[in-house]
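Weekly puzzle thread! Below is a chain. First person to post its structure in token form gets bragging rights.
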Amino acid sequence: MRAGATFASLVERNYRLFFVGALVSNVGTWMARTAQSWLVLVELTDHSSTALGYVTAAQFLPMLLFAPWAGLLADRYPKRRVLVITQLGMALAQAVLAALVLSGAVTLAQVYLLAFLTGAFAALDAPTRQAFVAEVVGPELVPNAVGLNSANFNLARLLGPGAAGLLIAVVGTGWVLAANALSYAAIVASLTAMDGRRLVPVRLARGRGQLRAGWSYVARRPDILLILAIVFVQGTFGMNFQMTTALMATTVFGKGPGEFGLLGSIMAIGSLTAALLVARQARPRLRTVLLALAGFAASMLAAALAPTYELFAVLLVPVGLSALTILPTCNSIVQLSVEPQLRGRVMALYLAIFLGGTPLGSPLIGWIGDAWGARWTLAVGSAAAVLSLAGALVYLMVYGGVRLRYRRDRSPRLVVDVRRAAPPTPLPEITP
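Winning reply:
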């Protein structure tokens, strides 16, 4: 099967197992995210976006704190074994939260603590999972597998929030969280069932200075630094949908848990479409990222100004489409451009910068929601995307040998010229 086919990676039995197990677990994760947001915003506070921001920050802070060691762990130890341990850890933390909610004893402080513990296991899990993909499918199919992983996550996003909204209304948030705790069993079972002989492991020998070697490698790569800058801005200011959609649904449009959950599922229509399109790309391009940034800025601003719940829901489709074009493409560019023995450490740094900005951005976005209103939380994301796009273009023109000019002929258009004097380390190609 050719690498550019949408479902090429599924030819590998190990990847099929991984895909199915991850899908079940991801559905549970999206159900739990919806339930946790509703628990904090409605059941434990009086629509406090600041409290919701702190919970989100607590969940992603471990990525910022533990990422360097998580990347070293991913490079040094068998990745499949690490993933089983981290999945069981997240399951335990979520089971405790479910038990507290069902018993009626849950407090906001407990939610903060358990969000942090879940995030700590997730910080160890994420770079290992990213690097494990290449061991399952091989380097040729990495862009396809990254796209399919994103499609998996967003198919779960299509199913999870809507199901969670209905279940919250019928049985309550506690049982939704309990279902998530059970869902981790699916991915543990899939990892256990894999054929280890078909994996292509890359292991790092023990030695001093291995963390520093990973950072030094990235510091010498202007192409990776550019991608990291883009994902940092997106992760910090643009990708707070767990908070922004909750605020818009409850404070602007006065909707209940069903309508709130439905927004996440509607947004996943665009996200899933983007992930499948990215999966078809045999070679990821920076040009795709830049065009998607422009689309994200425009659609986020339009959503911020939407006068009705129905129009807001429709506009979340292009928001999801553009957002999930940016992230898998950036992920593939980084994974394909690094040395295999450094992949775990580089992907840990990538995820630390992308998700590690959330503890900084979430409280700020929450404060903006309380002080200025929910619409401003979306407008800030749009403005950040504009600044990110402008900064990337300036960087490319100064360091990447790129020049923009307007061609006047029968079909006037903006074109990109690449000067012959190339930079010492080539930047990702942006021309066709």
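Puzzle host: Confirmed. Bonus trivia for everyone else. The chain is about 75% helix and 5% strand.
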